[in-house]
Amino acid sequence: MEFRAARNSRRAGSPAGRPTPGTRPMKRDSPVDSLRFSGRDFSQQELATIRAWLAENTLCREHLARRVCQEFGWFNAAGKPQTMSCKVALLRMHRAGLIELPAPTHPDTNHRKGKPDVRSAQGTGTGMPAPIPSQLALDSEQVRQVRLEVVQTAAERAIYHQLLRDHHYLGASTMAGAQLRYLARSGGGEVVAAFGFGAGAWLVAGRDRFIGWSDASRRANLHRIVNNNRFLIPPWVRAPNLASRLLSLVARRIAADWRSRYGYSPVLLETFVELERFTGTCYRAANWIEVGITKGRGKLEKNHRRVLPLKSVLVYPIQKNFRAILAP
Question: Which CATH code is given to the segment(s) 113-326?
C-alpha cells in the first residue's frame, strides 16, 4: 500500500494563529486599532514605532526582529524572544504595505547551491550519503524498526525541506512560532517520512467544543495544543501500516521533545485533513478523534463565504487530563 502525502496545514481551511505564551503583560488597543500578525496583536502605536526604527536605516531584518521582541516583550514560555515569529510578522506587514523592510541580507536563502539531493544523498546518520532506490519496500518487521529523529542539523533541514517542496502539496513554507520537525528513518538509514508540528489554530469550532474551554482559557492555554501541519511519506516508499505506526511513535515522544526545546509540554495534538484529497484513515487507525469539519472560510474571510477546501478536524490527547489543563 502506498502512503503519500500528509495532512495538513492550518493555513488552509481553518483559522491560524495563537497567543504567545510568556508574553509580558501590556496594554492593548481595541481590535479596530490593532492588527494581528503571527498570533500577536500589534497596536497602531507599535507599528509607528517599527516605522521609526526602520527610518533610522541602521537595522537589518534580523536585528529589527530582535529589537521588536525585546522592546515589545514578545517572549515564549521559556523566556526566549520569539524571533522567528517576529520575522514572519514583519514580512507580512511589509507585504501588506504597512512597513518597508530593508533588502534581505542573504537573498534567496531557500535556494542555495550545494544542498543535498534527497534522491541521491539522504544521509544515514553515519555522515555518508545513501542512494535511494526507485522504490523502497518495507515489510512488517522493518516497519517496527523505523525510528524518529528530531531535525537539528543543516543537512537534516535541507532533506526535510526538499522532501516537502518536491512531494507535499502544501510545500515547505516557513511557519511562525514554536515548531518541531522530524525525519523517520528505516533500520537501514533511509528517510521514509517527514513530520512537521507547529502552533495550534486560533479558533476551531469543533475542537473548541470538544475541549469545552472559555475564550479566556483558550487565549491562556492555546500554546499547549500542537498542530500536525505536515506529514509526508514519499511516493517511492511502500510499507504496510507505516503511517499509523509513525503517528503512534510521534504521539509518545513529542511532549518530551517539545518540553526540551521550549520549556513546556503540549497536551493535545490537532490536524486538518482536506476532504477532497484524503480520508484520514491513518489518523483514525492511530486513535485520533474526529471533532468536526471546518467551514472553509479561513481566518481572513469576512463575508462568511466558503473560499477554502473543507477539512476534517482531528485531535489526539497526549495527556489524559488535557481538559483540566486547557480549561481549568
Answer: 3.40.630.30
